[in-house]
Amino acid sequence: MGRCILVCAGEYAPIADEAWRLERRPGDFIIAVDAGLIYLMREDIEPDLILGDFDSLEEKMDGLPESYAARFAARGGDSIVHLPVIKDDTDTMAAARIGIERGYREFWIYGGLGGRLDHTIANIQTLTWISRDGCLKRAAGQL
After folding, report:
1. Residues linked to residue 49 through DSSP beta bridges, in sequence order
2. What stretch of H or E contains 132?
3. Among 65, 74, 97, 117, which lies 20 to 30 A Cα-Cα from 132?
4. What are the tens digits of pLDDT across the range 11-27?
């Protein structure tokens, strides 16, 4: 089984180092966490799942190419998980839970730091939770 890659909406910059570069490998499961979708689009990587309450994505929707949005929407309802705005878990934690439910044991998080301090702290807590469940975690690039 490959990696579960969570692409969040924090600070993100393309990574030149091949070992850490955001790219799909066989068996990987890529989740765009809310506005992390924008980063995946910049890298021309299509996620397997888009998840979030979409509060931060809606602010940035003007930059989405219509063809990308239409192609993803055509894949069906189980490719998008719409979370309520008021909830106990962050979008990133919800994504990690889905990855574990699907059997993934190696997690990489991109765009997990920067932006909102509360999200940065929550993402660090998510990494702790992942590791306590016996999973391997990698903080790639900015996290």
Report:
1. 31
2. helix 117-132
3. 117
4. 877 676 777 788 899 99
